[in-house]
């Protein structure tokens, strides 16, 4: 038990808080989380330190309330048809948190195929909207299973654009390009280095630096002292457990 009398936070709950932090200070932008933990994180941010954040029902309605995961919203404050959604995306007014089948040191993401593109070993989702997402609005990533299969030296195909490829584009094409953070079940990462390569920003409690290095297929930038991912407050834990995710779906995505 913690000093507040609340059961200690689980690894999944640290991941939720780390995802929520991606939207801290975001203002009135559209949050587009993909995955259970990022969805809980976006809703936690809306209920705490980012009250202006815009949330949708996953389709075309802007929500005025913050329902539990899996429940329908009861307050609708707007309609966001597809054409309006695309206009918002193109203007940098959205922050999406996507998944990744592969990520490299520069933040290039692959969700399309594994192996040679001409004859892949495995077909995945396809490029989808990843190029538009990454060049037109801030894009973070959520990886529930940190491994060398995901964190690779070179992605097999570029779906989401990383910092090295964005640098090759015209200034007008990269003006909204930004990768604020990558959250995995082991820690939090960013690209705040001179070369814009992936850096370890924090380790989740109980995780060793050696574990992260062993599970990463390239050399990470590591500061001299690596902080721990911040602990959820008692109120944040209450919101996660009682309001946003009372069914405990987060624990299925990141088992204890």
Describe the structure.
By secondary structure, this protein is of the alpha/beta class. It has a single domain, classed as Glutaconate Coenzyme A-transferase. Helices cover 27% and strands 17% of the residues. It contains nine helices and 13 strands. The chain has helices spanning 11-21, 36-47, 82-90, 130-136, 163-168, 171-174, 209-214, 234-244, 250-253; strands spanning 30-33, 55-56, 61-63, 76-79, 94-98, 102-103, 109-110, 113-114, 122-123, 139-143, 182-184, 187-190, 199-203. It has a six-stranded mixed β-sheet. It has a three-stranded antiparallel β-sheet with strand order 2-3-4. Strand 8 and strand 9 (122-123) form a beta hairpin. GO terms for molecular function: CoA-transferase activity. This is CoA-transferase. It holds the Pfam family CoA_trans.
Question: How do you describe this structure in short?
Answer:
With 256 residues, this protein is α/β, with parallel strands linked by helices.
Estimated structural class: alpha/beta
What is the helix tally? 9
Percent range for β-strand residues: 15-25%
Q: What is the CA-based Rg, rounded? A: 18 Å
Helix content: 25-40%
Residue stretches low in confidence (pLDDT < 50, at least 5 long) are 1-5
CATH topology: Glutaconate Coenzyme A-transferase
CATH architecture: 3-Layer(aba) Sandwich
Largest sheet at a glance?
6 strands, mixed
Ends: how far apart? 16 Å
Total beta-strand segments = 13
- Give the CATH level 1 class: Alpha Beta
> What is the string of helix and strand elements?
HEHEEEHEEEEEHEHHEEEHHH
Mean pLDDT, rounded to whole units?
A: 92
In CATH, what is the homologous superfamily? Glutaconate Coenzyme A-transferase
